[in-house]
Every structure is written in C-alpha cells, then in structure tokens.
Amino acid sequence: MDCVEEITAEVDLKRASILSQEHAGKLPDKETSNAPKDKYFLVRILFFFYGLNSMLPMTFFVVANDYWMYKFRNTNYTNWDPLHRTSIQIYFSSILSTAKAVPVMIVSLLAAKYIHKLHLRPRLLYSTLVICAVFLSLTIFVVIDTDDWQVMFLIVVVALMTIQSMAGVIFRISHSRLLARFPIIYQKFDMYGSGCSSLFSIFLQILSLAIGKDPQSSALIFFVSGTTVIGIAFLLGLVSDHLQFYRYYVGDSSEDIKHPPKTFKQLLQAGYCIRHIIIQLFFVLVCMTCTGPVTYLVVSEYYGNGNPWNEKYFVPVVTFLIHDLVGLVTKYFARPLMTLDSSTDCRCWYNNVLRIHDFYTLIDTPGHRADKEVDILLGYLIPGYCKFRKNAKWFTLMVILSKLTFVPLYFLCNAPTGSKRKIPILLPHDWQYITIVFTDSLCMMTLSGICMLSTSKLTEGDKQKTEDSFIVISIMLGILLAVTSPLGSLSVKLL
C-alpha cells in the first residue's frame, strides 16, 4: 500500500490543468466549434487508455502479491506458506523499491529539465512500447519454472521493473503536456482512466484468483489482461496520428523544443513557496516506505483454515482495495479550487454542489470552453474549505501527527516473517487491521488533497510559478524516494 502513485497522479494532473489554462491564451484559434469531429469517440477512448497507462504500471505488479510469494517460495513446499517465508519473500517489496529509486530519480531530474527538447509523439509511443515490452516479458516468465534460479529471476524482475519505472516517468510527463492541449472533456476521460487503474488491477487480481486453479494460472490470466490493456494503448497511440481531431489539437510540438530549460533560481523560488508541501512529502514518503513492506506481510488471523476469504482474498481486498475505494470516494465529492486571496471567506457547501452541477451542464454546451472549471475534476471535498495559506503550518503538523499515530500500529499487526518476531503482535485481529487501513487511508487522502489543491494559493496564483512548483514536486518525489527507499528493508528487520 503506497501513496506515491496518488501523489504523482495529483502532480501530473494538476500540472496539466495549469498548462491547459496557459494554452488557452496562446492558442485562440483552437476553438471547439472549429474542430473536426471526434469520429467514433476514438480520441476519448485514447485518453481513457492513456490515463490507465499512466498509473497501471505503478500499481499492477504490486497487487500480484500471491504470485510473487509463489515464485519466491521455499521450494520444499508446493504452495507458499506465510509461516515459512524465505528471505526473498520477506524483502521483495523493499528490494524492488530500493533498486528502482536511484535510476528513477536520475530520469526524473533529467526529464523535468530537458525532456521538452524531444518531440511529444515519439516520447509517448516509445515509452508506451517499452512498458508493453516489460509487461510481455514478465508474462512469459509466468510459465517458466524459476524454482532453481530464484535469485537470478529476482535480478531479472528488478531490472525489468526499473526499466518500466523509468519509461513511466517519461510517459507521465509527456502525457501531462499532451493532456493540456485538449478541451476539458478529454481531461475528464483521462481522469476516468487513471482513477480506475488501481481498482482495475485489484478487481482483476481478485477475479484471477477466483478463476485460476493455482497461483500460476491465476497470474497468467492477470498478466495477459494487463499486457492487453497496455497493448491497446500503444495501438491507439499509433492510430491517433491519422485522426484529424487529434492532429488539430496537438498541432506542432516543435515550439516546445525551442523553450529554454528551467533555471535553478526559478525552481528554488517555486520550491520556497511550497516549502510546507515539501515537508509533508518528506514525512509521508518516510512513513509509507517504512509501512509498505510490512503491509505486504500481513495475513488474516484465520489463515490456514481453508476459507477462500482468509487464504486468497484478504490481502488484495484489505491491503489494496479498501485504500483505493476510500481514495475514489473522496475524489468523487469534488469542488473547484478557490483562487480567491486568503482573506476571503470560503464558499459554503451547497454553493459548491451547485457549481459542480453547473460544470457538467456547461461542458455539454457546444462551443463552451470550460478551462476555468478544470479544478472541479481535481479536488477533494474537505480540503477545499480550508484557507491553506494562513494554516499551512497546522496542516503540516496534522500530517506529521497522523503518520506518527498510524505507522507504529502497522508494526503491531499480524505480519509473520517466518521466524520469531522481535516486535510482539499486539493487534492480531482482522477487524483491527481493517480499521487501521481505512482510517489511515481516509486521513492520508484528505491531507494529500489539501497539499495538492493548495499549490496555486501558495504561489499566489502565478501560473508560471505554479507550473514550476509542480516540476519541483516531481523532482523532490524522485529525490525523497531514493533517499528513503532503504528504510523498507530496515523496517522489515525491526519485525
């Protein structure tokens, strides 16, 4: 269970929102009324799959916990047993995050500064092709017996996932630039795709476990389905260049190549404006890096009684599904980001509901540009009512207190390591773990919503500085992830 993907998604989509407002002023000829028809809604379908592609690789393989435990099991047993875990099973999650951290950080730093020098379309296609190739490679390994060379298989998996993560960074940055060129309705379809990516992975995993007779057959169904989705995204990307509607809005990306890279001074100024957000990111990543590997080890208190819920479904439903459902419900109650100054009172609840209704009415009106309403799709219900600029330090304190409260609780849950634990299991019951996951997810999604929505206020509405601030957040995510990644192994050793 990792919140990095949620934060990354908010960064990319919010940056696309800022860019869309910027393009609205620079491209006055790109009126919706003059655009060619989107035949068969192919471009909308493309953006839905691009939204899936932007987030699916980040969550897909993490959800396949049962498969990885089977591949790295003690070969003296036919199936894996949580009471007899191997070292690779225990440290798999932390090994993966640690190995990926530095390469992803380097690519993030270089991409944030220089990626605009490459043309947009090749970046999207080649990065998608690389991701598809990684999915296909890992799918092939499902049917290969790796019991006699588990360490070598681990090295191959880490290498492939590192390549995929680097390609994912390039795709998401390029994708946010593409998204900014299209009307708001296409950002909406993209958000549908990215929003359901985690749920798609989890429900597909549950369905695969239900259909498959053993971990290998379940994994084959799961991986083939994921590879198919990425393959469809790549094929739609190839076809897109032949669609008049797509070419009309994309235009000539050669203008982007001429822009000079951001200077260190510009990024430093933007970083100072959002210093409270950076502090929050640091605490969130430290805590999630510590608790993530622990949650992968948690099993039901009734594991071993033969009940399918306890044997198969407890981990994907509780550890992954609850977290994502909480996030989805929180995002559903969306409202626009207030751009008023900090001395102005926040709007009341029913006015926000009316604005949401008005938004969906406006986007269905032919020829209407709804750029100013884009933040309706990017908000959370609770965060929007807070005047963050005056209360930044208090929200930062809330983040710190929240994580300090929940992090120790995960270490006390039922997470067997295969040997005698150093920390006693004081919270052994399933209902206790479910309560912790639900409450922690609710607090985290609310506070991360405040964090992302308040960026424009902290930069005083300056579009250029706001865009720079999201570049800074992307860079800091890469750096902090690299710095904190070794904590995963240390947290498992503490158990």
Tell me the β content.
under 5%
Class by SSE composition: mainly alpha
The separation of the N and C termini measures 18 Å
DSSP E strands, number: 0
- Average pLDDT figure: 75
- The backbone outline, from C-alpha atoms, is globular
Task: Describe the main β-sheet briefly.
Answer: none
Q: Helix share of residues? A: over 70%
* Count of DSSP-assigned helices: 20
**N-to-C series of helices and strands:** HHHHHHHHHHHHHHHHHHHH
Q: Uncertain spans, ≥5 residues at pLDDT below 50?
A: 16-29, 334-389
Compute the gyration radius: what is it?
23 Å
What count of structural domains? 1
Q: What do these coordinates show?
A:
The chain is 71% helix and 0% strand. With 495 residues, the protein is mainly α. It has one domain. The longest helix is centred in the first third of the chain and has 30 residues. About 14% of the residues have low confidence.
Entry summary:
By secondary structure, the chain is mostly helical. It has 20 helices and no strands.
Note the main attributes of this structure:
mainly alpha, 20 helices, globular
